[in-house]
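Journal club prep, notes for RB
We'll compare a predicted complex against what the paper describes. Inputs for the NAP case:
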Amino acid sequence: MNANLAQTRIMKNMKIVVIGGTGLIGKKLVSILSQKGHEVVAASPTSGINTITGDGLAKALTGTQVVVDVANSPSFEDKAVLEFFETSGRNLLAAEATAGVGHHIALSVVGTDRLQASGYFRAKMAQENLIKSSRIPYTIVRATQFFEFVGSIAQSATDGQTVRLPPALMQPIVSDDVAAALANIAVEQPLNGTVDLAGPEPIRMDELVRRFLSANRDARKVTTDVHAGYFGTAVNEQSLTPGNNPRLGPTRFDDWLSRRQAQHH
Ligand SMILES: NC(=O)c1ccc[n+]([C@@H]2O[C@H](COP(=O)([O-])OP(=O)(O)OC[C@H]3O[C@@H](n4cnc5c(N)ncnc54)[C@H](OP(=O)(O)O)[C@@H]3O)[C@@H](O)[C@H]2O)c1
């Protein structure tokens, strides 16, 4: 058997632990990887595996080649979210070192380094820095905002019937495309670096939310305000858009909106 074939075989029968395996991305990722024939553990507090307390972690990681961390903090309050990503990162990386895990993949956010005025993004930066300073081979995947998150963006900017948002460029992506990209990266060699992941087309934040509200027959109106923030943080044209050579998901926002509408009727 040649080396490539041998490698393909190993890549097909891996044990992969998905931290946050019951979440929006986690559930989809677990399903794709299982269908590809891997042994997959969907790790989360509800399945008895907790990266904050350490419960069940060592046992889950025994014999594991790859860990994909798609967990999120239950609280987004500045102090709580920083504590979550620091404690979770430390516990997880220490347990991976003991188990001899060969590839740690984490899902972060495009623009994390440019949005450090935000407590959430300081926490994501702390998560990334722990990974970079650990000795475990890694790939950090920075995704843009999920289509499924657009409702929360609208909510955060709502005052009565008005949604005040900046015209900042974004390039959002659907969660299925994020899960598919992570499933591919899970069987690739570690980059020991960062890759950006985005949707197929740029769109301005005010316009994105306008289309979302209109598709949902939501009566709120979007007011464009260049001084409005993103969850209170100032953003410009480059803050939320991907850098060089991003991986792109194929699903367009308008297609997702019409597909969702068709499902609801
Ligand atoms: N939203 C966006 O637009 C966006 C964009 C780019 C990147 N991201 C990143 O994507 C990641 C995943 O987001 P998501 O929306 O899929 O998250 P989600 O649906 O909120 O799921 C969070 C997951 O984390 C698990 N979890 C919570 N505390 C845990 C703990 N102590 N130990 C182990 N697992 C724990 C939860 O388990 P239980 O179900 O048991 O509580 C759940 O499975 C996040 O890291 C986020 O920063 C998000």
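Talking point for the session: The chain has a mean pLDDT of 95.
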